[in-house]
Amino acid sequence: MRLEERNKQVALECKYVTSFFAQGNYESCVLKGQSNTYLYPKGLRGLRTPGDIDLWVWEKGCQCLYDKKRLVGILWKISGKQLDVAVHHAECGILPKTPVEVHFVPSFAINPFTDYKMRRFWAKHSDCIRQTDEGFNVPTAGFNLIFQMSHIYRHVLLEGIGFRQLIDYYFVLKSFYDHMSLEPKGKLSESKTVMKEMESLGMKRITSAVMWIMKEVFAMKDEYLLCKVSEKYGRELLNEVLVGGNFGQSSDEHAKLKVDDEGKETFVSKVEGNFATIKRGMKLFWSYPSECLWVPYLCIKASWVRNYWRKVKFER
Q: Per-residue pLDDT tens for 111-157?
């Protein structure tokens, strides 16, 4: 009952933040988390543990989807404090209890050349959204397949994932195939189109690994799978899930990170965290070389982005 009430509360909060940005001429879409609850069967829908709100926000009528500095300036005024701006999102204190991550783009690739393709893909398909009865937008099923696979891929290479993300993906697949005839034509409505986009964004191998888990662990029928399964990469991925868990919280590397008296990461822990990320990337290098090769570059880029936005001054 507590979970059901919490889900209802977060749904209302999603509606609130959506209407808030709409007043500033921004379109938005709730990603992952709360949007995934609508994919679960009614008996399970209210039992999914809610987390923070991931909101993809872009300016209406803007060809590049957003003016990043203007959007960060708005978030800075809302939060009234220093923002933690990452490569693709910023934390925003718009709600008193529920954390809100405002995404400039839904996700990103480690490889900068693939990331360029991915950003073009998000821009091209920013209209692949639908509105819920609660009054906020969520991705269409076809878009969701590509977005959440990219999210899984990035977490596997950088931090680790748990079964929660894979269970979500199970219901994303079910939703796509069960409602394929209802998807707008030409908007990622066919499985072949979705898989073609996956390949162009360098996600064919990780997709075959996830499909193996869908089949062998979740007993998903073959007609729901996007591509041929790969036992080799599937078993490797399953081992990563079992050993590390979500954000690698069960791994030895995560346990070693040092924090200060307030529970925040210290400079030493950040350096150790970057080395742990690079070490993880190198461990998976032979399976996903095109992405893992660029992990050190991403660590440098992420540090530069955070430091840059901390120095930018905005007028209140």
A: 999 999 999 999 898 888 888 888 899 999 899 999 999 999 999 99
Q: Which pLDDT tens digit goes with each residue over 50-68?
A: 888 999 998 876 655 556 7
In one-letter notation, the amino acid at residue 76 is W
Please give, one letter per residue, the 3-state secondary structure of 214-230: HHHCCCCCHHHCCCCCC
Any residues with CB less than 8 A from the CB of 9 and at least 6 apart, and which? Answer: none
pLDDT of 107 over the 50 cut: yes
* Chain centroid, CA 120 distance in Å: 17
Place of tokens 């969520």: 138
The residue whose two tokens read 């979740």 is 218
Characterize the bridge pairing of strands 89-92 and 53-59: unpaired
Is residue 29 helix, strand or coil? strand
Could you list the beta-strand ranges (E) of 104-156.
129-131, 137-139
Average pLDDT for residues 194-222, to the nearest whole number?
95
Q: How far apart are CA 79 and CA 73, in angstroms?
A: 10
Max Cα–Cα distance, the chain, nearest Å = 56
Mean pLDDT of all residues in 223-240? 94
Query: What is the predicted pLDDT for the residue at 133?
Result: 85
From the CA atom positions of the chain, what is the Rg in Å?
19
Cβ neighbours of residue 160 closer than 8 Å, sequence gap 6 or more: 240, 241, 244, 245, 246, 247, 248, 249, 251, 280
31 φ/ψ angles, rounded to the nearest 5 degrees? -105, 155
Q: How far apart are CA 169 and CA 310, in angstroms?
A: 35
